[in-house]
Amino acid sequence: MANDLEGKVFLVTGATEGIGKAAALNFAKRGATLVLVGRNREKSERVVAELKAESGNDKIELLLGDMSKMADVRAVADAFRAKHDRLDVLVNNAGAVFMDYQLSADGMEMTFALNHVAYFVLTTRLLDILQKTPGARVVSTSSGAHHVGKMDLDTITKRNGKAGFAAYCDSKLANILFTRELSRRLAPSGGTANSIHPGYVRSGFGLNNTSRLMGLSKLVAKIFARTPEKGAETIVWLATSPEAAKFNGEYFFDMKVARTSKRAKDDALAKGLWELSEKLSA
Fold this sequence. Notes:
This protein is of the alpha/beta class. The chain has nine helices and eight strands.
């Protein structure tokens, strides 16, 4: 397995901690050219140094950007394009839950902006590179929470002033619907797009919140949650294994196709979300 990813280019968001960092380390150890996206310069540079030291791979680059801001996402994509003419694997993993209602710099509810719109803008801005890279793969982190998602396209952008866990569930449903439509668009070029549920992982997720509920969640995670390495297994498998290359438009948990909600199978809703996302990011 050593150096089996030599010559391949991987772009990973949400790579400075948790499952993103665990997946990035795996790719780095296997010789990939790795481009990480981080928001905080000091933390991101520290992670890059750690990954280089642990993997022995110096082909690790950093792009800085706040993925909740469309201007930053576009800048990240453009910076990637300026240096790379291929993209073998894009891992859309940056995400969070915002319990208190707030709007992004672009006027969208923050959870939706970060968890879905960032995926959409980054992927579509790099879509032509993905389409011309043989066997390109897109892996997007969703969640089992999508089963609770209801998502109304008429209100999803601002959510009528409401946020919290319901917003998170809707954003994770959006990840699967986005993947469904993306897979259809990548298929003619031989590319694939799949989404995953990482499981309940011990990571930095939710640390941006200070509510009692999130505090309890962090305590429970210390006791019962799986490791980031275990949570990243399915990302790594979908991104690199020959077996996974035959799947397109599916949702996985523990390297197996998993059941989705009825709404997650709605092709009309997937198409509608894509069209709305195009308008929001125009």
